[in-house]
Write a structure and sequence with these properties.
- By secondary structure, the chain is mainly alpha-helical.
- It has one domain (27-142).
- The protein is 85% helix and 0% strand.
- The protein has five helices and no strands.
- It has helices at residues 2-16, 29-71, 75-83, 85-112, 116-142.
- The longest helix has 43 residues, at 29-71.
């Protein structure tokens, strides 16, 4: 719920930054591009920090599991803890593939100087390719 409130607050702040102009947000091309750029930057910051936090959590959980095994806890408790690690590895792999796809998309946009809907299409396509790569890697890990 906090994420929704924070998102709405940031969204209203982005709209409030343009409150002194007489133009409509969607009619002025420069304002719309700046709005899209702000949203993309916020999403990128969220994705990068979520990726870093999930990697840190994965490393710390792995160390904790090693200490639990060394202490000689019952086998049922250890097996329950080990079962939850697979989702975290897959989640980290998913974020890695998504961020790589977005980075490739932004690189293509930078090389060809695309703007407006074409830039969004390139990012969406590269993100879809990243998720396809995640699907293929996850299916290989299951075998």
């Amino acid at each position: 719920m906090k994420k929704i409130y924070i998102t709405l607050l940031l969204f209203s702040a982005a709209l409030g930054a343009h409150a002194q102009s007489n133009t409509n947000l969607m009619s002025d091309k420069a304002t719309f591009e700046e709005f899209v750029r702000d949203i993309v930057i916020l999403l990128m910051i969220f994705m990068v920090t979520s990726f870093v936090l999930s990697i840190i959590r994965l490393i710390l959980d792995n160390g904790l599991k090693k200490k639990i095994v060394e202490m000689g806890t019952p086998e049922t408790v250890v097996s329950q803890l080990m079962a939850t690690g697979k989702n975290e590895v897959r989640n980290s792999l998913k974020w890695f593939c998504a961020l790589c796809g977005i980075a490739v998309g932004l690189g293509i946009i930078g090389c060809y100087h695309l703007s407006d809907i074409y830039a969004l299409m390139v990012i969406a396509f590269c993100l879809a390719i990243g998720f396809l790569g995640h699907f293929l890697l996850a299916s290989r890990l299951n075998k």
